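Risk register update: the risk of archive-format incompatibility is retired. Evidence:
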Amino acid sequence: MNSNRNIPIPPLFLEKFEKLISTKEFPAFSASLDGQPVSGLRVNTLKTSLEKFVEQSPFQLGEKVPWCDNAYYLSGSDRPGQHPYHAAGVYYLQDPSAMVPAQILSPLPTDRVLDLSAAPGGKTTQLAALMGGNGLLVANEIKDKRIGHLIQNVERWGAGNVLITNETPERLADTFGPYFDRVLVDAPCSGEGMFRKDQGARAEWSQDMVEGCAVRQKNIMKIAAKCVRPGGHLLYSTCTFSPEEDEGVIAEVLKTYPEMEVVDIFSVAGFDQGKPEWIGVDPSISKAIRLFPHKIVGEGHFACLMRKKDGKEQKKGKDQWRKPLAKADLLSWRAFCQDVLALEIDEERLKVVGDRLYYQPEEVPETGTLRVAHHGVWFGNLKKDRFEPSHPLALFLPAKAFKNTHPLDSTSPHISSYLQGGILETTSKGWTVITVDGFPIGWGKGVQGSLKNHYPKGWMK
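Archived output:
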């Protein structure tokens, strides 16, 4: 049973939308808000092909999500969040409607992309996969309490093109300027589209909250637009229905920045158009899309894509990471590679921060005094005369990249033991990667017939 039915839909919300939505459609719309929410699974194409995953999937997969080629609706009583594949970053569990914005933005492998409100990481991981792990993807989260979740999800995903910042939009715009080819703003909102899966959204809703969100959204978007290069694209999305937070915000952007124009979005059966007539704003905003839960299999969503027609091109900044490693650090890293890795790593992309060694994206601009939470893939720590690998390094590379692996089957009790800190028996010596059905899942260190467990305690369930 859907526990959201314990809290009724706010009467003032229903009264508001009864006036906006046609008399013919309103009963279906209001009934859908008390329906069962749906969930989806998006395959990590950086780690496996869709075909291979379908062949070995331990879950009952439903239909494909129409707007995301590598995602499926989940059916049955499976618990994919508890499966070892989830710990290995083989897939991401996400509301199917939340997959729309990144798919609309469709970044190229050569792009510079900014995900302005990135936590918990669903859209970031999707963007990273669409880019093939190439280019530059800056994932930003302003709230300290949410940054850890974003980092963990990005680390699990194993993408080599993500820089994570913990900053205000203002400081990002001041530092980068019109630098990005594509910017995604998944704005904080009143959450009306989540009413059937989130009791809190129902309990907290008010018209004052809607109007307060709209003010905040307009301020964020006015700053976000400054980060888009001429010819670049800005995607705005929310999980709410109120036009004050949707079409009204876009209208304010167009008014403030005449060089911005709304562009068409791909069409999928069930997608509705933007509704500028609801609040009397620019008719071009009808090119936006609305996802209503009575028309598609998913939750409520809004998305609008804009393009910056002109402006001053930002000159490419000096790369901050083109600095060779200190000789001692480089020797420690090379010694580790010789013993443990079966492939070569581009040393020009390595950067030391404190005692941490990072593998940075292909292009990283000067970040100045920005709070950078992760400078790329955290490879490990430089200790005195040695290098100690980190968990993200195991998840970043394929199994064939490691000289020593300890293969486990996903149904084996040994994999559950490992994920809870257990020690495995082995004939291997030194650093060894544990795999589950061929997917790296973490480190162990072979000593006297045992694999000392190096799975992060904070990740154990």
